[in-house]
Amino acid sequence: MAQGIVLTGDRPTGPLHLGHYVGSLANRVELQNSYKQYVMIADVQALTDNFDNPQKVRDNVLQVGLDYLAVGIDPHKTTIFIQSMIPQIAELAIFYLNFVTINRLKRNPTIKAEIAQKGYGENVTAGFLIYPVHQAADITVVKGAIVPIGEDQLPMIEQANEIVRTFNRTYGVDVLVEAKPLISEVPRLPGLDGKAKMSKSLGNAIFLCDPADVVSKKVMTMYTDPDHIRVSDPGKVEGNVVFSYLDIFDTNKDEVKELKAHYRRGGLGDVVIKKRLIDVLNAFLDPIRTRRAALEKDPDYVMATLLAGSQQTREVAEQTMREVRAAMRLDYDVRDKR
Ligand code: TRP
Prior knowledge:
The strands form two sheets. A three-stranded parallel beta sheet has the order 1-2-3. 54% of the residues lie in helices and 7% in strands. α10 runs antiparallel to α13. It has 338 residues and is mostly helical. The chain is elongated. The mean pLDDT is 95. The structure holds tryptophan. The site of tryptophan has 14 residues, from β1, α8 and β4.
């Protein structure tokens, strides 16, 4: 087993999509073979902007758990847990708040963008504003050293590492471990509409749980080249979402290359390339769907897996907290005090 602990997670606000797969799920399926890996369902973080809709978060904990197991995150190799079931994370986050200024939080680029996008302005809640601190606690409570994430999460890791360094320096310890982000080598998957990012809130996503006919319909709406009007017209491959997806999911690279050349020359219609992509995506998704359908029949098993993973994580987290509390002179119950 290689050195280093992997920690990563997702907010349970909806089922996971192909963008999640390309951005980090694929990495996790690999990493679990050589690292101790923790994957977290971040229900507390999801509640920061869904606190008035707890049932949505509750329902999606199961959906995300199903997605994890269906894509091949193996609970015998990876510890999958629910954030709220680790009270040590909340305790640690409270301690960390001493090391972070409000101004620093407001300057976090991801937070800044989200505040703008959600229109919170000055009325942003404290809970939302501090979620990067909470996320620092997610990572460090299990001493996560490697964090497979999408690029948008880089500011979170940067901020977490600032906290780690300040904590260790302030108390003269090396209790906390800095984390390295692991960004997928596969280029980011655009949305169906050609927007830079696939996202549920933009309504441009293909979900891992979409049935075959839904995938077909979605691919048929995909953005291609608006100037490619007649089949005989030469078409553009750059920015053409169908080709972006074929590049990632079609294993026959030579044929994709030929298709691109043909499309550029003219004489290749959008429907032909879309039909090919539908087949490619459905072949990719079919085994995931089959596993998901079997697991959906046994939600108790899925929840039991998440609870068992949470129990394991609590034990590791409590170990870290003993060191943290000792560093902060909060180890009242430990007999051999210095
Ligand atoms: N913020 C992440 C997202 O929106 C989810 C997340 C929460 C996370 N805690 C984490 C990711 C810790 C990596 C590590 O997708």
